[in-house]
């Protein structure tokens, strides 16, 4: 009995369209990360990118539970002294709704070259239309 090995030519990719309106951010992000990694397929192997591409629409209509809309923060730093910027979920969902979902999904993917390859297959749109 030999081991069945998966090669790059055996990978079949699909395109999933996910509507984010009314869905909870964390649960949506885990669903998307699972599809990007390919864990929903029977031929999943951790050393290859077997995942599908995902298109998310209505990113501005995603919700969070509890007090997270006021408490959850997104930080960035300009690199200069005093350059720390902190923004709450409420302000970020108005300014950049795509970033909220991208940030949540990116944190759930592997922090390796393979993870950077997986995140490139994610497209997020704030409205209904996909370009």
From TrEMBL:
GO terms for cellular component: cytosolic large ribosomal subunit. GO terms for biological process: negative regulation of translation; translation. Pfam families: Ribosomal_L13. CDD domains: Ribosomal_L13. PROSITE patterns: RIBOSOMAL_L13 (PS00783). SUPFAM superfamilies: Ribosomal protein L13 (SSF52161). Keywords: Ribonucleoprotein, Ribosomal protein. Gene3D superfamilies: Ribosomal protein L13. One of its GO terms (molecular function) is mRNA binding. Transmembrane segments: none annotated. Belongs to the universal ribosomal protein uL13 family. PANTHER family: LARGE RIBOSOMAL SUBUNIT PROTEIN UL13M, RIBOSOMAL PROTEIN L13. This protein is one of the early assembly proteins of the 50S ribosomal subunit, although it is not seen to bind rRNA by itself. It is important during the early stages of 50S assembly. NCBIfam families: rplM_bact. Part of the 50S ribosomal subunit. This is Large ribosomal subunit protein uL13. It comes from Candidatus Daviesbacteria bacterium GW2011_GWC2_40_12.
């Amino acid at each position: 009995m030999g081991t069945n090995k998966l090669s790059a030519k055996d990978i079949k990719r699909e395109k999933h369209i996910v509507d984010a309106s009314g869905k909870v951010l964390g649960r949506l992000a885990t669903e998307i990360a699972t599809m990007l990694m390919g864990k929903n397929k029977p031929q999943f192997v951790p050393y290859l990118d077997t995942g599908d591409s995902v298109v998310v629409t209505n990113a501005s209509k995603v919700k969070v539970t509890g007090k997270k809309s006021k408490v959850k923060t997104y930080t960035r730093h300009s690199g200069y002294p005093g350059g720390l910027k902190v923004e709450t979920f409420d302000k970020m969902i108005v300014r950049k709704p795509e970033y909220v979902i991208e940030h949540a999904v990116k944190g759930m993917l592997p922090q390796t070259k393979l993870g950077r390859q997986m995140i490139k297959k994610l497209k997020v749109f704030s409205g209904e239309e996909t370009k």
